[in-house]
Specification:
By secondary structure, the chain is an alpha/beta fold. Helices cover 36% and strands 16% of the residues. The mean pLDDT is 96. It holds the Pfam family His_Phos_1.
Length: 198
């Protein structure tokens, strides 16, 4: 099967450089344009199923790219595809966090794999949540399916790590851009990254 991994369009929070996990900023003007570009790139691909996170920016992106009135596409909201919960860091930028949460921020830098965001989610729980979600999606799909996943940068990086066998260590080895999609072919016991950020 083919997995088409789409990061939502840029939001106003992304533009301002804010930590944005479960906090939902609206799509920026640039984000809306990016979604239209992705729609154009995918117009010749027949998609059977579209799974999108429960956060508004992902659903708005899915609605901009795909026809929700289509009877040939199955649409499903999946909360396990949500971005990580940054807790009290939500809505704050790097400078603020590194200054006001300096000890915790250093712990995050030292080992993100074991870090739990203050009043938020641990990286391990986030990683496992996304992995379980994508396993269910794959198990419910057919070999010939083309499946679109509309989600977040962190979510997509977890999916790439899981399917390509990198585990936690590969998380920061990928940049997942707005306004692009990546494609993975999933086989029974392996997966191949066809391209990244097309």
């Amino acid at each position: 099967m083919k997995l088409i991994l789409i990061r939502h369009g840029e939001t106003e929070g992304n533009y301002k450089g804010l930590y944005q996990g479960i906090m939902d900023y609206p799509l920026s003007e640039e984000g809306n344009l990016q979604n239209l570009k992705v729609k154009s790139k995918l117009e010749n691909i027949n998609v059977n199923k579209v799974y999108y996170s429960a956060l508004k920016r992902a659903k708005k992106t899915a609605e901009a790219i795909f026809d929700f009135s289509s009877s040939t596409i199955c649409f499903e909201e999946v909360s396990s595809l949500n971005e990580i919960n940054f807790g009290v860091w939500e809505g704050k930028d790097y400078k603020y966090i590194s200054k006001n949460y300096s000890e915790q921020f250093q712990s995050f830098i030292d080992d993100f794999r074991t870090f739990e965001f203050p009043e938020g989610e641990s990286f391990k729980d986030f990683y496992n949540r996304v992995c379980e979600g994508i396993k269910k999606i794959i198990n419910a799909s057919k070999e010939e399916d083309n499946i679109a996943i509309v989600a977040h940068g962190g979510t997509i990086k977890v999916i790439l790590c899981m399917l390509l066998g990198f585990n936690y260590e590969g998380f920061y080895k990928f940049n997942v851009n707005h306004g692009c999609y990546s494609l993975i072919t999933v086989y029974k016991d392996s997966a191949v990254l066809e391209f990244l950020n097309k």
